[in-house]
Amino acid sequence: MTRATYLRKLKKELSGLSDSDINDTIAYYASFFEETNDDEKVINELGSPEELAERVKEKHNKNLIASQKEEKENNSEDCVNALYYEFEPNRIQSMQLHFSAAEIVVIEGDKISFETRGIEKSDFVCNLSSNGILSVNNQKRINLEFFNHNRKYRVVPRILITLPKALSLDYFNLKIEAGSFTSENVDITSFKSEFIVGAGNLVLKNIQSSASNVRCGMGNLELKGKLTGNINLDCGMGNLKMDLAASAEDYSFDAKIGLGDLNFNGEKKSSVAGHIDCNQKKANHISVNVGMGSVNIRFQS
To answer: Are 227 and 260 in contact (CB under 8 A)?
Structure first.
């Protein structure tokens, strides 16, 4: 494997981080190759692109959590808005999470909690209904003043979500307009799920669902787990990647393809007049709609 191929695969595996973090990481490891001028030696030391990406993401999440704790200790409430909400897991039947521009990380804990930094209280609504529906809404967009260098405080909006190691829900709805959302170590099981990404990055691993609707606009969306039943995938101009813990033989699919790409279990699919029909629909069925984006579906039984 050449350094160009290695770095290209590494960049792909780093999806879910911000563009600046990805570019900095690629530049950092590219310098390894330049200094030694021995691609094979560097690759042997770094490991596979997948392994290195996992280490980078883990370090990024730890640094983000540490940064949140440091901000909490060093900043007063006059400088940084800090909110905290906590719930007992047995009271939650469904979750509806809608976020705008923020860095969001999910970690494992005993309770369900939301801790924010740099978000006004009026812009963050967290409510638990009497029938067990937890609704979290932070949809106010950041205005241009946030990016003004003359602004006294430039705190990146951040949300730290704590969930039990194994969370079971009736319905799980997650919408990311911008920013990033990363959950890698928590197992989330839901009878019905809906994942929506606008221009942000969503990485959600260890997910199980019996019926799923997935929509990706201009961002990046990565799902890994066991999705069964009817799975509807819509991808506009973004990148949608799905790794299923199952056999491809247990799934059927149909597709509508515009100018984008569809890769199904390592095989690039082309369409006739923009359509791929399903001859025999199975219990597990994937319906794909691709505009100008890219959809990659892989199976790992």
So the answer is: no
